[in-house]
């Protein structure tokens, strides 16, 4: 086998394993450690590596969801306290933890990395919690929740003639239908659109609230081929952020996604798969335009965030799902996207490719 297309980086790095939990509406009986441990065991078993053989470990989570400071230190019990590990954490979706681990491997300080992320949204109101990320002087005092802000974006798209409620319903229906083949998805099959949450978004246009965990293993060069029959090479990865103030942005477009895609080399060749972190159906419209995705691209064949949206893990799952399709030969070149913040404020784009014969 030859390698992926020409790499733009010092080292070739690939996703060699991916695992995730079943995403559930509530996991009251489980602690974060009990949620994380089975997934970590599964992803390591897929490579044959032990925790002590991993060069770097990085996690992504949010103390706001857990309701206590430095909550991520507790889940390290799921990794194992011995032997000592090189470890880091980001207060972000696990996709950004993967980016840090990828950088660590690029520097040559590690050859392998374990990346995991988790979130328990069920204990509180996610819509209220996410208001704490807004501008504290102008927006936060108004308490616009995440659904209201997404509806503002959706209405801007409708007013611009770029979508309508029928098109949004079709996106939601397709996502839930594709999720029927995903045993980990929280919502699968035909799900009614339901009533308006905030017009023009109905229940079916919004992500489910739930708990979940995801993990991947990264490896460099020839080691990746030893650990995985068909590695998913990260041939490009970049992330960008837009203005904090929503009034300073055109909500019908995502220039940060487009810029990240350009720097990741997305537009150098066609892709056959796109796993987009679009928690709301209207956001898929924005992302498709920013990434230049045509009708021939399979978008969110896993069901995407409309089928399961565990906070802090949904972005990492997009990378993992894209990589898994490459592992099993269902895709040759895929793009994975993760987002954070209101109305697609911050965006990460990764391009993954399989070896060519």
Summarize the structure.
This protein has helices at residues 32-47, 63-66, 72-79, 94-106, 126-129, 146-159, 165-178, 221-227, 255-264, 281-291, 314-327, and strands at residues 13-20, 56-60, 87-90, 112-120, 196-198, 201-202, 211-220, 232-241, 273-275, 298-299, 333-340, 346-353. It has 357 residues and is an alpha/beta fold.
Give the topology string: H per helix, E per strand: EHEHHEHEHHHEEEHEHEHEHEE
Instruction: Going across the biggest sheet, name each strand in turn.
Output: 3-2-4-7-1-8-12-11-9-10
Number of strands: 12
What about the largest sheet? 10 strands, mixed
Proportion of residues in β-strands: 15-25%
Helix tally? 11
Structural class: alpha/beta
Q: What is the general shape?
A: globular
Rounded to an integer in angstroms, the radius of gyration calculated over CA atoms is: 19 Å
What is the distance, rounded to the nearest whole angstrom, between the alpha carbons of the first and last residues?
A: 5 Å
Helical content (DSSP H or I, runs of 4+): 25-40%
Low-confidence stretches: none
Mean pLDDT: 94
């Amino acid at each position: 086998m030859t390698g992926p297309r020409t790499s733009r980086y010092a080292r070739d790095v690939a996703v060699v394993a991916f695992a995730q939990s079943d995403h559930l509406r509530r996991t009251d009986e489980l602690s974060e450690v009990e949620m994380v441990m089975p997934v970590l065991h599964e992803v390591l078993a897929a490579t044959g590596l032990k925790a002590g053989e991993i060069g770097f470990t990085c996690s992504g989570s949010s103390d706001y969801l857990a309701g206590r400071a430095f909550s991520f230190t507790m889940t390290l019990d799921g990794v194992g306290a011995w032997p000592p590990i090189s470890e880091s954490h980001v207060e972000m979706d696990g996709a950004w933890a993967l980016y840090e681990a990828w950088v660590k491997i690029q520097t040559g300080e590690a050859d392998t990395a374990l990346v995991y992320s988790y979130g328990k949204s069920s204990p509180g109101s996610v819509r209220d919690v996410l208001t704490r990320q807004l501008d504290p002087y102008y927006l936060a005092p108004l308490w616009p929740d995440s659904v209201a802000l997404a509806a503002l974006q959706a209405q801007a798209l409708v007013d611009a003639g770029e979508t309508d409620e029928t098109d949004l319903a079709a996106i939601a229906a397709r996502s839930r239908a594709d999720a029927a083949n995903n045993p980990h998805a929280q919502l699968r099959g035909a799900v009614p659109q339901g009533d308006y949450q905030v017009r023009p978004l109905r229940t079916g246009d919004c992500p489910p609230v739930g708990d979940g965990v995801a993990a991947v293993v990264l490896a460099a060069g020839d080691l990746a081929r030893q650990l995985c029959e068909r590695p998913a090479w990260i041939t490009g990865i970049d992330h960008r952020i837009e203005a904090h103030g929503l009034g300073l942005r055109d909500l019908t477009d995502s220039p940060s996604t487009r810029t990240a895609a350009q720097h990741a080399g997305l537009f150098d060749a066609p892709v056959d798969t796109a796993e987009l972190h679009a928690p709301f159906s209207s956001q898929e419209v924005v992302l498709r335009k920013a990434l230049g995705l045509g009708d021939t691209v399979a978008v969110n064949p896993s069901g995407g965030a409309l089928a399961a949206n565990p906070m802090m893990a949904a972005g990492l799952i997009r990378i993992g799902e894209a990589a898994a399709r490459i592992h099993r030969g269902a895709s040759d070149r895929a793009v994975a996207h993760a987002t954070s913040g209101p109305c697609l404020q911050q965006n990460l784009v990764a391009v993954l490719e399989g070896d060519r014969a």
